[in-house]
Specification:
- Chains A, B: This is tRNA/rRNA methyltransferase.
- Chains A, B: InterPro entries: Alpha/beta_knot_MTases (IPR029028), MRM3-like_sub_bind (IPR053888), Ribosomal_eL30-like_sf (IPR029064), rRNA_Methyltransferase (IPR051259), SpoU_MeTrfase (IPR001537), tRNA_m1G_MTases_N (IPR029026).
- Chains A, B: One of its GO terms (biological process) is RNA processing.
- Chains A, B: Keywords: Methyltransferase, Transferase.
- Chains A, B: Belongs to the class IV-like SAM-binding methyltransferase superfamily. RNA methyltransferase TrmH family.
- The structure is a homodimer.
- Chain A is α/β, with parallel strands linked by helices.
- Chain A folds into two domains: about 90 residues, 60s Ribosomal Protein L30, Chain: A (2-Layer Sandwich), CATH 3.30.1330; about 150 residues, Alpha/beta knot (3-Layer(aba) Sandwich), CATH 3.40.1280.10.
- Helix content of chain A is about 30%, strand content about 20%.
- Chain A contains eight helices and eleven strands.
- Chain A has a seven-stranded parallel sheet with strand order 7-6-5-10-8-11-9, with helices on both faces.
- The longest helix of chain A is centred in the C-terminal third of the chain and has 16 residues.
- The model of chain A has no long low-confidence stretch (mean pLDDT about 90).
- Chains A and B meet through α5 and α8 of A and α5 and α8 of B.
């Protein structure tokens, strides 16, 4: 079989082009980002963009940096899907890329926006509330664990880190594209939304709490986990929600937030018997 | 109450001093490190050195950079414990420190060495085998989870990352100092050691495996987890050990290794009913 190089005829742009600057801004994660744009790098991330149908704002293509046949093929598909597509030099590609060897493909893409009022849940459901979680890598690992445990939705309150942070995309293995997530400015509104949707809510806390193995998680269950340093914010304690703790039997005083959330999610999932 | 500044009269050294170079070498994690030396920074890490009695090879003290009264007090205690102690300038302190504001304290300390033949286990015991785990942060989080779950020992085979890596110390919250760990050059020897100590061994694998909730973990149990990219190495499959899997119900094909290990450890621990 003869492999035919796809003929992409794209305008070449350089480091001073506004779109190139935009990539760097998104990676720095400093400027406002109302459209929830993030940067996807390499073949694996682009396959995920194609699978999930995420909108691609801008595709940067560097044929000299492509090393896999699959990337050559996908380049045409992504270019066809993107609102804009440009060719860049290997040097520019290296500048806009955080990873090494991105296989000639970088894109600015858009995270989906979920409407909290349109999400629907089954008789059994699992929601995780991340309250003021600070470290992007932790939020990423949380999303990856939620995906694995078959959770239904991430709720964010007192948001400290953005889902568009490069480390969230990596840590979640791109699951920020597929795991529904909604954000509330006020804890109060999140609590009302959970109650209205029939969720039993449990705060992960060690004080005045029950061992997480001794609770019945059938039905719709939401766990609230808090910031790495300060725990769950006060406002969550005003609603009479239950509290559960994961026993800590050693010398350190805490578990990594994504670890404790995963232990809780898997316990609930096993009880809900949905596997 | 009048606070009396401890009077430490230490020789001042600069960037070109061999001990300063040694700190940088250990942090770079490139040179051989037979004596298992690692770098401890700041008050929290030094409190842990004092609590655990870890040998302190060299203490670097910068009184101008101290901002807490407790650090002032601990400085004298650490200096008294250290084989060597020097004063350094704020500029030198900044160079040898990875974190910001180390509270005037940096040390080269030694990880304990555990003798595999002298470790003893109770009727119920939990061991985690990390086979070829590559990412230091993952190994650190593993150790932190092992501490929390009250595990007894970390076994390393096909070691790819060192326990002295700065990210292991941080990720484990210093639990690499207290959680016993032993290393085997050959998987064969680790398998024999586990059998001789009466452990039921389970490989964490998705192929031909049982759901992790359907296994009886009473007694002495060891879980084997593998590298982030390649899983468990072949040699582990030659011993007829059982296999367990944590169900993955989503789109991504794997869980973070420290997350899946934690889910397994907590399940076993709950069954062993040791809390």
């Amino acid at each position: 079989m003869v492999f035919v190089e796809p003929q992409l005829d794209l305008q070449q742009i350089g480091l001073s082009h506004p779109r190139v600057k935009q990539v760097l801004d998104i990676q720095r994660n400093t400027a406002p980002n109302r459209h929830k744009l993030f940067v996807a790098e390499g073949l694996w991330a682009h396959n995920l963009l194609l699978e999930t149908g995420a909108p691609v704002e801008c595709f940067f293509w560097c044929p000299e940096a492509i090393y896999s046949d699959e990337a050559r093929k996908r380049s045409s598909e992504i270019a066809a899907r993107a609102y804009r597509a440009y060719r860049v030099s290997p040097k520019t590609m290296e500048r806009i890329c955080e990873r090494e060897r991105p296989d000639g493909m970088v894109s600015i893409a858009q995270l989906p926006a979920w409407d909290r009022d349109e999400l629907s849940f089954g008789d059994s459901a699992l929601v995780l509330v991340a309250d003021a979680v600070e470290i992007p890598g932790n939020l990423g690992t949380l999303l990856r664990s939620m995906d694995a445990a078959g959770a239904d939705c991430l709720v964010m309150t007192n948001r400290r880190t953005r889902l568009t942070h490069p480390k969230v995309f990596k840590g979640s293995q791109g699951m920020c594209l597929t795991m529904p997530s909604v954000e509330f400015d006020e804890v109060e509104d999140a609590a009302i939304w959970l109650k209205r949707n029939g969720f039993s809510v449990y705060l992960a806390d060690t004080d005045d709490a029950r061992n997480y193995r001794e609770v019945d998680y059938r039905g719709r269950v939401a766990f609230v986990v808090g910031s790495e340093r300060y725990g769950i914010s006060k406002a969550w304690y005003a609603h009479g929600f239950g509290r559960v703790f994961v026993p800590m039997l050693g010398r350190a005083d805490s578990l990594n937030v994504s670890v404790s959330a995963s232990v809780l999610l898997y316990e609930a999932r096993a009880q809900q018997d949905r596997w």
